[in-house]
Amino acid sequence: MKFVLSLLALVVLITSCASKPPQQQENICTIFKQKTSWYRLVNRSEEKWGAPIHVQMSILRQESAFQNRAKPERTKLLGIVPWKRKTSAFGYSQAVDGTWDWYKKETKKPLASRVNFADAIDFTGWYINKTNKINGISKNDAYNQYLAYHEGHGGFKIKSYNNKEWLINTATKVDKRSKKYKQQLDQCKSQFKKKIFGIF
Fold this sequence. Notes:
Lysozyme; two-stranded antiparallel sheet; 8 helices
């Protein structure tokens, strides 16, 4: 019995450590050093969907701060009592239920989970690719990609973001971080590529 309890405690510890968000989130090199499997997973998504690593990571950083169980804040009933959440957004990618179901159906991944980084980053690459096809936005354009990610493809088409100054500011932040991530990654990606190919 003691052995079983010890084993369960170890599994919980390992799981909690694995899902703990990176500490220094403004440096993509530090993120990949701390999360040793993430570069391989994001690189795989880039190769599959053509979505640049720095764009994917900047969007995920903005959406959830790399917290695997992130949820929107609850609304307040009568301004006091915690009530329903604003949307069904959940996980690393903050994908809503309908969009996540679309992704699972189209990619034939019925068991994909929003709390799993591999699935979340694959979703992000998939969505960036969809936005490129539907809205004609370059996969390198983090600013407009984020607006479409937040507002949806239909919302982007009708420019629903025009009356949301806070969202314009957030998209600008995502774009600046994406450019910074790219500069940082250019300096360190060789070491992560070596790990992928098993050089060390």
